[in-house]
Design goal:
The complex is a heterodimer of chains A (about 750) and B (about 280). Chain A is an alpha/beta fold. Chain A is built from 31 helices and 14 strands. In chain A, helix 2 links the parallel strand 1 and strand 2. The chains are: A alpha/beta (about 750), B mainly alpha (about 280).
């Protein structure tokens, strides 16, 4: 075999291995593609059982349960599968996403199937729950998996010890305040009570009940935000008061802390909430005290909000009848009772919820009945609005008032209302924009190919050359072919498409025909988008702090281990080790290390007599926390410096020493100049990396508190894949590129003054 | 250099402390993975009143779903990436270093420029492209862009290295009747061991730990990778930190192993490329 043939074989083998779809299966029988529940989930056996029963009742049908174990949340995964046009027949979605899916017209209206089904009796299910799955026209789009109203968890032992009985079901805000004042203890007077009245949850579903109880609302009758109305402001102010004026509430129940051993579990808070049924699982581990659930305290009226996931059918399903029947099967007795038994949530099927499968006679909480009792005044958030972005903006804005107490409630509410209205108005106006012509995107993609072909032709055309040179040139192009193909297909083409997208708006769950032409709208929006400004600031501040510190530390470590001594190899390994950890793992790990109570960093600080801060919860500390994490992963930079140090001529040091130069002078005038090019390299690479931080904030803080850790790359991801705004996401991506490019240029320019290349040996 | 014994001792202590600081979080991770469910956060680092819970590891594996499959996928992706990157990048690097063709310097500038394109700019259009090609939920989107066009840094490393080899070697090979490819394959590539080593390790770490691309492109259970499985852990509220850390340790172990085994090659490769950068 000639060498060239061998090369072709290699390329072919590799190409095939890459292109073979990992899921290729042909099947004669009808297959129902089902994506509900995660496979690690305890109720999975019930799901498989339901699928098998369904197959038995429908010969020739195979139910393929697609497991979402491993995807970052099965709800996000549904989006990607829809975006990838993969066949799906039954999915489940979160009620907060229902409106977005409705708006993009990707769900099948199941009402005709319900109407045609003689066995369908809506009265079997809770009417309040079904309301969450109805479109604006009242049509039903799905059936519930499990749901939960928000309630209050109470530490009965603590209440009893403080002389309080279990609060009655109709307890009020005043009762809550009175008890909280009485039980909050700060014996050492350090402003951080040992025992709190309430550990207060603060995401939107948890905040809304307070607003509703005070007679407030989220949207007014014209569909505009009503957050600035006095009733809503008062409610927000009440919560801010609990935290900052009365100082009886703890803010430990933020997203960053959600999974950890919280104050309530530690027996240090009388109440915890508003929160759903799911916490009963985590609290099973509590052995030291007695706890139970209560309705939320009421004010002007009683109210609470609900969380739910429900089963539904994508419009693209090719077997809607079977899909409908499987949805019915999923929401029928055996599955609903199974989910109730394992404590997944409240079943939407009334007879399952009222059976002992849910109202368990033994074990805490004693009063599961509370979840059913509060249903009469439970509501979902308004469902005819794409809530994801509004939820994030509202949460980030209200945190200024509630969590951080740095802005008056009225001001934060007004700001949240303004931003909500902006989002609503943008959604409305977007739908009136013209469609992007169908040829535009393929044309942009092909332009990359055109550029590369042009380059090749230009290279090949000019002048006659000797035969040998022609052969060499042809060989060169063969050698470069894989790279050039990649350049054309995967770099230049996509870059052109991204540029085009930034002038459009488009939701990734639809095809490109749904793209709307926005002109310079997206670019103008950059000027007004406060979240973008925050993200830019956060990212820039991080880069400004982290890059120099990382470079300095890397240099310091390299100097320490530059010489070979016993253990120097081990040390180099140790310093490098954290670098091989993936950003996701790093995020997971540091989220626990930085836990306010019981995290290792704060324990170490406590041992040194310093009270550690709430790293991920306090706006002033969250960026320093990320910088600290960044310092831990400087192994690569250290290695680069180390390599550079070993090329420094020993004779230079010798000469300097003979001249009587001090250690510092030797470093300043010999080492540093020799490292110049490497310093530059590390600065550029470090800056690029700093602007691309993404996985750690996603895993650790989701951008909070406020927007204080909303890095640019994270915000871009949220716009594109959470809020389904790919056009604006592309605009943000180009901004990111422009910033990094400009910074690199600045660093390179300025480096001419301080980097000197030794000799001309290039 | 003369330094007193106590100064050296101080130096040693300082180094040991620093090394431990860098190691401690990993130690904490392993120690936590051995605590019983729900107990780790209330305890000290090495308090094991109930003995180490090795059972957390099988439990974590069970929770991650089909661990074997995920491990296989991750390993397969890693091997294919390494093989592909080594071949394509060394080939291009060799052409830039050794072959004369018109437009060479301009093209090489283009290589350097693509280093600066942040992956975020390309993620969305690449997703659209692969969707159009019907390659969503295959390994192609994870391999093709990085292997073919996405490794300018490695092309750069190879070029610099090949430039440093004496030209006489090529000429001798040519005399012996080797073609251009034969010269590259039989003479130049075998001499590029250090760069091959560091490119392989860089690629190994990058692919093994990749989160973004698998998250976007892989859907089916049979295509899941380890980092994805780990991320799903994080999303579940029914989660014990002890299991999470057990899972994390498992995913990390191969990286640590590979680094330890190939450390010398790796450091040498970085040194060589940096010296010539």
């Amino acid at each position: 075999m000639t060498a060239r043939a061998r090369a072709l074989c290699l390329a072919a083998v590799f190409g095939c291995a890459a292109a073979v779809p990992a899921t290729a299966q042909e099947n004669e029988e009808v297959e129902l593609q089902v994506l509900v529940h995660e496979s690690w989930f305890a109720g999975y056996p019930f799901l498989l059982e339901t699928a098998r029963d369904f197959e038995a009742a429908h010969p020739g049908v195979r139910v393929r349960v697609i497991s979402s174990a491993g995807a970052a949340g099965s709800v996000d995964k549904v989006k990607f599968m829809l975006a990838g046009k993969l066949p799906l027949d039954v999915i489940w979605i979160d009620v907060t996403e229902f409106a977005a899916f409705l708006q993009e017209d990707v769900l099948l209206d199941l009402q005709p199937w319900f109407d045609a089904d003689p066995d369908w009796r809506p009265a079997d299910y809770f009417a309040q729950v079904l309301a969450g799955m109805r479109g604006a026209d009242g049509h039903l789009y799905g059936l519930p998996s499990t749901f939960t109203p928000y309630v209050m968890y109470a530490n009965l032992s603590l209440l009893h010890a403080e002389g309080f009985a279990r609060p009655p079901p109709d307890w009020t805000w005043n009762d809550l305040l009175r008890i909280c004042r009485a039980v909050t203890r700060d014996a050492d007077g350090d402003g951080r009570p040992e025992q709190y009245g309430i550990s207060l949850t603060q995401w939107l579903q948890a905040l809304v009940p307070w607003i509703w109880q005070n007679g407030g609302r989220l949207l007014d009758e014209h569909g505009r935000s009503a957050l600035a109305e006095p009733a809503a402001v008062e409610a927000v102010d009440f919560l801010a008061g609990l935290l900052h004026r009365e100082k009886v509430a703890s803010d430990d129940a933020t997203f960053a802390n959600q999974l950890q051993f919280g104050l309530f579990q530690a027996g240090r808070a009388a109440f915890y909430g508003p929160v759903g049924y799911w916490e009963t699982y985590r609290f099973q581990a509590i052995e030291d005290f007695e706890w139970d659930v209560l309705p939320l305290p009421r004010n002007k009226v009683a109210a609470t909000s609900m969380a739910m996931r429900f089963y539904c059918v994508p419009r693209a399903s090719e077997r809607p009848q079977l899909a409908y029947e499987f949805v019915r099967a999923l929401a029928a007795d055996s599955m609903q009772r199974g989910l109730a038994q394992i404590g997944n949530g409240v079943p939407g099927l009334i007879r399952a919820a009222e059976s002992e499968d849910f109202l368990k006679p033994v074990g805490a909480p004693e009063s599961e009945q509370v979840f059913l009792d509060v249903l009469e005044h439970a509501r979902f958030l308004p469902i005819h609005v794409n809530w994801r972005e509004i939820e994030q903006v509202t949460k980030a804005t209200l945190e200024d008032a509630i969590l951080l107490g740095r802005v008056p409630a009225a001001e934060a509410c007004a700001e949240a209302a303004r931003l909500t209205d902006e989002i609503l108005a943008r959604d409305t106006s977007m739908r009136a924009r013209p469609a992007v012509p169908a040829w535009a995107f393929p044309a942009a993609q092909l332009s990359g190919l055109a550029v590369v072909l042009l380059l090749v032709f230009r290279g090949l055309r000019r002048g006659a050359r000797p035969r040998l040179a022609v052969r060499e040139e042809r060989a060169a192009w063969m050698f470069l072919a894989p790279w050039a193909a990649g350049l054309a297909l995967f770099l230049l083409g996509p870059a052109a498409v991204a540029a085009l997208l930034s002038f459009t708006e488009w939701s990734p769950v639809r095809d490109l025909g749904g793209a709307r032409w926005m002109g310079f709208g997206q670019w103008q929006r950059l000027a007004e988008d406060g979240t973008f400004h925050d993200a830019l600031r956060v990212t820039a501040v991080y880069a400004l702090a982290a890059v120099p510190l990382q470079t300095a530390l890397a240099l310091g470590l390299a100097l320490l281990v530059r010489r070979s001594f016993r253990g120097s190899g081990t040390l180099r390994t140790l310093f490098y080790l954290p670098t091989i950890v993936s950003p996701v793992v790093l995020g997971v790990l540091w989220r626990w290390l930085l836990t306010e109570d019981g995290g290792m960093v704060n324990r170490a600080l406590a041992a040194a007599g310093v009270q550690g801060p709430d790293w991920l919860g306090a706006p002033a500390w969250v960026l320093p926390a990320f910088v600290l994490m960044g310092l831990w992963t400087i192994g690569a930079q250290m290695l680069v410096f180390l390599a550079g140090l070993q090329t420094v001529e020993p004779s230079l040091y010798e000469a300097a020493r003979v001249d009587g130069a001090s250690a510092w002078a030797r470093f300043r005038h010999v080492t540093l100049p020799a490292l110049g090019p490497l310093l530059l390299f590390n600065l550029v690479v470090g800056t690029i990396a700093a602007f691309q931080v993404f996985a750690q904030p996603l895993v650790m803080t989701q951008g909070g508190p406020g927007n204080e850790s909303r890095f640019l790359a994270l915000y871009m991801w949220e716009q594109g894949f959470r809020f389904l705004r790919m056009g604006y996401a592309s605009t943000l991506a180009w901004v990111l590129f422009a910033v990094v490019f400009a910074l690199t240029l600045v660093i390179l320019r300025s480096s001419r003054r301080w980097v000197h290349y030794a000799g001309a040996g290039r | 250099m003369k330094s007193s014994r106590s100064a050296r001792l101080l130096h040693g202590l300082l180094l040991a402390a620093l090394g431990l600081t860098f190691l401690l979080p990993l130690v904490w991770m392993v120690a936590t993975s051995l605590q019983p469910e729900g107990k780790a956060l209330g305890r000290g680092l090495f308090e094991f009143p109930d003995g180490p819970q090795w059972g957390n590891y099988p439990l974590a594996v069970e929770q991650m779903g089909s661990f074997g499959r995920q491990f296989f996928n991750t390993a397969l992706l890693t091997v294919l990436s390494i093989a592909g990157q080594l071949f394509c990048c060394s080939l291009a690097g060799y052409a830039f270093a050794r072959l004369r063709f018109r437009g060479r310097d301009g093209l090489f500038l283009l290589v350097l420029a693509t280093m600066m394109l942040p992956p975020q700019v390309l993620a969305i259009p690449q997703f659209l492209l692969f969707r159009q090609l019907g390659l969503i939920d295959t390994f192609a989107p994870l391999l093709l862009p990085t292997v073919l066009g996405g490794a300018p840094f490695f092309i750069f490393l190879f070029r610099q290295y090949f430039l440093s080899l004496p030209r006489e070697l090529d000429e001798a090979a040519r005399m012996d009747g080797c073609g251009f490819f034969g010269t590259y394959w039989r003479v130049a590539l075998p001499l590029a061991g250090p760069v091959v080593g560091s490119v392989a390790i860089f690629t190994f770490l990058a692919t093994w730990n990749d989160f973004w691309a698998p998250l976007i492109y892989l859907n089916s259970e049979e295509n899941q990778t380890l980092t994805l499985a780990l991320a799903s852990f994080q999303q579940s509220y029914r989660l014990a930190v002890e299991w999470l850390m057990a899972g994390t340790s498992l995913v990390l172990a191969p990286c640590v192993l590979v680094y330890f085994v190939f450390q010398r090659v790796f450091v040498r490769g970085v040194r060589l490329s940096a010296a010539k950068g």
